[in-house]
Amino acid sequence: AQKVTQAQTEISVVEKEDVTLDCVYETRDTTYYLFWYKQPPSGELVFLIRRNSFDEQNEISGRYSWNFQKSTSSFNFTITASQVVDSAVYFCALSEAFRDMRFGAGTRLTVKP
Amino acid sequence: DSGVTQTPKHLITATGQRVTLRCSPRSGDLSVYWYQQSLDQGLQFLIQYYNGEERAKGNILERFSAQQFPDLHSELNLSSLELGDSALYFCASSLRVQETQYFGPGTRLLVL
User: Fold this and answer.
1) How far apart are CA B71 and CA A2, in angstroms?
2) Does position B98 have pLDDT exceeding 80, yes or no?
3) Is there a contact between A47 and B100 if contact means CB atoms under 8 Å apart?
4) CA-based nearest distance A49→chain B, Å
5) Nearest-CA neighbor of B85 among B60, B106, B58, B102?
6) Amino acid A98: pLDDT
7) Is the C-alpha dihedral spanning B6, B101, A63, A109 positive or negative?
């Protein structure tokens, strides 16, 4: 069965600090997809990234970067030089067959000015 | 803006009632998904449709049903509503089954 664990329930940082959100997953499949979504206070879910199980290359997009390590079943998300607008709940998700996406409990990030 | 639209944005109703939530997928997307987000259960997958046919079922109650119409919009019907059904209901769509899901703004349901 697939499972996603986001152990950090809440994180609070001061603006310009770097912050890493942890995501650990469990799956028996060799083919799977990992996602990060952002849910700002307005409530919508915004897609950030998708990574398939065969691509362990880390990715950087502006201030965002993702570290995928199959050896530790982790897909961590780092925000560099955080800003107040980064305040949101961030969800990590796993899909084994793109039919039933399983979300983690989410990490609430608060960035203080 | 993801391109997925959901109506209504807010819904307040009473226990025992029935409501219908509507979703229009992004232009060209064939697959529609429904999720429920509540404080105690988190984000839960309910059901998926692809080109009008049901493809997968998650934790969807028997009181809930859904369908996808020929124009690809989808409706989620919730009946015999209980207080515990109060939640944010999201619709998502993707081009095909194995593609990234893009979420609508959600419908916030409050059952009193």
Assistant:
1) 33
2) no
3) yes
4) 9
5) B60
6) 55
7) positive
CA–CA distances in Å: residue A103 to residues A25, A37, A106, B8, B91: 10, 9, 8, 24, 15
Q: What is the pLDDT of residue A55?
A: 87
Rounded distance, CA A4 to CA A77, Å? 14
Partner residues linked to B93 by β-bridges: B32, B102
Cβ of residue A103 closer than 8 Å to a chain B Cβ = yes
φ/ψ (deg, to 5) at B84: -70, -5
* DSSP secondary structure code for residue B109 in this structure: E
Beta bridge mates, A91: A37
Instruction: Label residue B59 by pLDDT band (50, 70, 90).
Output: confident
Chain A residues in contact with B43 (beta carbon < 8 A): 91, 103, 106
Query: In chain A, whose CA is at the least distance from the CA of B58?
Result: A100
Give how far the C-alpha of residue A6 lies from the chain's centroid of Cα atoms, to the nearest Å: 9
**Confidence label for B105 from pLDDT (cuts 50, 70 and 90):** very high
Question: In sequence order, what are the residues at sequence separation of 6 or more whose Cβ sits closer than 8 angstroms to the Cβ of residue B40?
Answer: none
Q: Is the distance from CB of B107 to CB of B39 less than 8 angstroms?
A: no
CA angle B39-B41-B43, nearest 5°? 90
